[in-house]
Amino acid sequence: MVEFQAVQQRGFHNYYDENGNIAGFEFKFVPRYYKGLWFTQCRFGNVEVDGEVYDRDCISIIYDGIAYSREELFDLKRYWQFRTPIVVRVPKKGGLSVGYHDVVMNFGWVLNYNGALEKEKDGSGLGNMAHMFGTKNERRMLLCR
Amino acid sequence: MSEKAATKGHPSRGISLYSYQSLLGKTMTLDDAFEEMYDTGATCFEFLTSYIEGYPNPSPKWVDHYWMLCEKYHLQPAELGHWCESHLHRGPKMSDEEIVEELKQDFRVANLLGFKTLRTKITCTNEICDPEPGWQSYIEKALPYAEKYDVRMQNEVHLPTTLHTPHIREEYLDFIRRTGTDRFGFNIDFGTFQTRAAKGMEDMPMFHFDDVSKPEEIVEFLPYCWTCHTKFTNMDENFEETTIPYREVIKLMIDHGWSGYLLSEYEGALRFKAENSVEDFANAMEGIPDQVRRHQIMMKNILGY
User: Rounded to two decimals, what is the model's pTM?
Assistant: First the structure.
């Protein structure tokens, strides 16, 4: 079971490197869409926290215990199971401060549904479904550690 | 069905799990969904491939559990909603052979889970769902496999597409008649007959209702139709849907001997607003199962069973 929002508060915390130092923060994300997706069709965008932008090519996407870059996911012919969150890991020295944060996950996908075919066939955009579902997923969340 | 077929049809009354999609995996498990459907008196259901745990390779344990649920709640698999993917990878469209391999995968899954009909979403290029050119080639190559796995693909006719949208006749019907296949046809979504926005959706101008399908148009398509989405967007407290001419359409189907699956598919405001706020989600939690129950009561009143 997941929370009803796309950006999940359960799983929102700083993470640590092997020396015990805070290396960044992470949260879980599950698409709002009514079906699962092939990772090859997913288009991951930037993460934003309190207005600060974290580039999509600097974040890691963890699925079933394995961390992938955005680029690697284009070749991952694996089905993102419905209502199964990924972990979005964002490097940031010192992490986020304890307290409330406005978190945005930009995400789109490619699907053969009721619209023009994807124009950015190189994966540079956010897919072809924004006209129906948008790409911005935001939530105010409380970080404790 | 020909005019000679005087025998009345006997459609089955069922539910599409899509109706509960806002709740599935959030407050409703698959077991809960089956129990909910059982309560309505439905006898059959539609799954989407996404609701198969481990898709496209569900574990034997999950498959056993699935069949246990079907048996426990006396529910029969009717239709599996799937996607005919032609753009799975960056770059150009996939080859026919690659697309057919994906289709075969879904046919096998459908066969494993007892689904005889499929809602096959073919890549389209605009709002009225004109198909991407070249679809005939790979669908024709997939027909022998549909025969092998005993499934029938159905293109969904979904608002704003109507039964008189040119591609329905000029492409899909032409394909069926040219190939003579009985493995490809139409899932006619009742939303295509909707004449106005339902209560609660007046401020959601997703569709226009100035050109919709007329009930009598369905007759020509019945020989190529095995499952319909009985779409609804709002059921009132008297168990009536007031924007779609349900009784007229279903009478035509029965009078022409149609005995397929009619699957309640809720796609109303509660579903679109569910993730907007805690209040909206609470409304969806209570309202969506209630809407489906109301719709099932209406369908029972129309069908008489």
Answer: 0.96
